[in-house]
Amino acid sequence: MPPFFIALSQSNPVLGDLPKNADLVAKAAQQASAKGAKLLLTPELSLTGYPPEDLLLRDAFIQAVDQQLALLTKTLAAYPDLRVIVGHPKRTDAGLQNVASVLYRGEIVASYAKQKLPNHEVFDEVRYFVPGTEPCIFEIDGTKVGLIICEDAWHASAAAQAKHHGAELLVIPNASPYHLEKQYLREDVAKARVLETGLPLIYSNAVGGQDELVFDGASFALSKNGELALAMPHFKEDLAFIEYKNSDLVKTDITAPSSIEAQVYDALVLGVKDYLGKNGFPGAIIGLSGGVDSALVLAIAVDALGADKVRAVMMPSRYTADISWIDAKQMADNLGVQYDEITIAPMVDAFDGALASEFKGLPVDATEENIQARVRGTLLMAMSNKSGRIVLTTGNKSEMAVGYCTLYGDMAGGFAVIKDIAKTLVYRLCHYRNSIAPVIPERILTRAPSAELRPDQKDQDSLPEYDVLDAILGLYMEQDESIESIIAKGYLADDVEKVTRLIKINEYKRRQAPIGVRITQRAFGRDWRYPITNKFRA
Q1: pLDDT of residue 128
Q2: Catalytic residue among 150, 151, 399, 430
């Protein structure tokens, strides 16, 4: 059969913006056609964005999708030699289905309904879709191409079915969100399908932020012996081309994978950029403390938005160390952001005075500490209301796990940038960012972490060392190991009991926290659904 080129579109749709998403497909088609490609593969649900969630329950949404798909089909008729695979929901006799259609010369010439509907981690497709059962095989110059969608590739049956019906090449549109090591899992799964079927495979993934999810792109292709033939970059929109020749894919550009720290940092930057950009926020406000967490969030925000759209506010109390002031100001200067200071001591004194009779005879405790955090939260939210800028909170996953945070205080804000970043990873990301340009003062990275809400306070006054806490958190929360099995791994029983107890009793706080970028395979968000009222120990 004659050789031909296939274009892979690694696009960043805006969920629900059907005209914009159709335009992304049309522009990619124009480029693909200009370079002589015979097929353009766009990501899963490329017309709507992913995941549409309960928009799929609205008849008006499905009708609008049908209308936009019809318009796009006519538009793409301008490229008579190009077939374009577009993802969209479609109502069929079986019910609503997750579909990829082949658009060619002004018509839909083939369609495939996703057979394996994911219902795990962040996925909930069983709520919306019914599975397909039939294969989809279409031809390009005599070569038979088999089409399957995303989750189908994680199971053997759909690829085997395509092979059985004559497929000589597999193409797979995807909307696969990022988590640590996800790309290696995808490639391993795809390689298994290639070795089972003997067919080369092309995998095109979406890119961009959608609420707490970030899609990393990293699209790729595998030759029929399972070797990497194409690897596209992480976290960047792109259009790549690969040739199908002599029943196989011809090896072309392979982008080397970046370090884990680089991937996570890029994911956070993209998550912030798209959350603010797609929702129309004009900028961000960050409470800068002189500590490591707010330093990282400030660096991410500037890299995502530009220094002119970021404002840093230092709100010292009577317990704020001089070095915190100095380091916060230096950090702001390094990044070139607007920096302001508002002393909270007079406001805290006013609260203390108003509550003096209520608290008479009672010892000072976390109540007074929380008042300081809530004063800061009130100030930040007031500035947010006045300017329209969103407050980016600075709490990390370790703190969120054990409740080392204050409702309506440091949890007040619209987007929790490092909500899924353990404290030990926070430090690694700071060192990574400084390896690009030294913007975070070294003392921030070497001093003991402290909330600075009482004299000489240190985080480890009330928490295990962070390397221990994070290890227990990973085993219990991310890997679902039992208390006994964690203790058996050598961790002190007191530490394990304390951390797991704190995780459970602070669920009510996490339910009231803003969403944030998901980085791990198990984040406190849509893939963590534990009851608040819960007495189960293990």
Answers
A1: 96
A2: 150
Strand-strand pairing, 4-10 and 338-341: unpaired
Residue 360 annotated in active site: no
- With vertex at residue 231, the alpha carbon angle to CA 230 and CA 237, rounded to the nearest 5 degrees, is 120
Displacement of CA 315 from its chain's centroid (Å)? 30
Q: Which residues contact 472 (CB under 8 A, 6 or more apart)?
A: 464, 486, 491, 495, 496, 499, 500
481 annotated active-site:
no
Report whether 305 contacts 276 (CB < 8 A): yes
Say how far apart CA 459 and CA 466 lie, in whole Å.
9
DSSP-H helix ranges across 343-449: 345-355, 366-387, 397-402, 423-436, 442-446
Nearest to 266 by CA among 323, 226, 324, 208: 208
* Closest listed residue to residue 94, CA positions, set 110, 108, 114: 114
Residue type, 499: V
The secondary structure element, H or E, covering residue 287 is strand 284-287
Alpha-carbon span 196 to 208, nearest angstrom: 32
For residue 392, the cross-strand partners are 415
pLDDT tens track for 240-253: 999 999 999 999 99
* Identity of the amino acid at 395: G
Low-confidence stretches of the chain (pLDDT beneath 50): none
Tell me the one-letter amino acid at 377.
Answer: G
- Looking at residue 68, its amino acid is Q
CA 246 vs CA 143, 230, 380: distances in Å: 10, 17, 62
| Catalytic residue (one of 90, 114, 163, 509) | 114
Query: For residue 451, what pLDDT is reported?
Result: 62
Between the CA of residue 442 and those of 230, 327, 432, 445, 446, what are the distances in Å? 40, 9, 13, 5, 7
What pLDDT score does 453 carry? Answer: 61
The edge-to-edge listing of strands for the beta sheet with 310-314 is 338-341, 310-314, 284-287, 390-393, 415-416
Q: How many CB atoms lie within 10 A of CB 303?
A: 21
Number of C-beta neighbours around residue 225 at 10 A: 12
Q: In what order do the strands lie in the sheet with 137-140?
A: 137-140, 143-147, 169-174, 201-205, 220-222, 228-231
Q: How many Cα atoms occupy the beta-carbon half-sphere of 303 within 13 Å?
A: 19
DSSP assignment of 211-277: TTEEEEB--EEE-TTS-EEEEPPBTS-EEEEEEEETTEEPP--BPPPPPHHHHHHHHHHHHHHHHHH
Q: How far apart are CA 419 and CA 26, in angstroms?
A: 36
Backbone phi, psi, residue 230, to 5°: -155, 135
CA distance linking residue 82 with residue 35, whole number of Å: 11
Q: Is 150 a catalytic residue?
A: yes
Q: Which member of 44, 151, 212, 369 is catalytic?
A: 44
**Residue 396 exposure: Cα atoms within 13 Å on the Cβ side:** 23
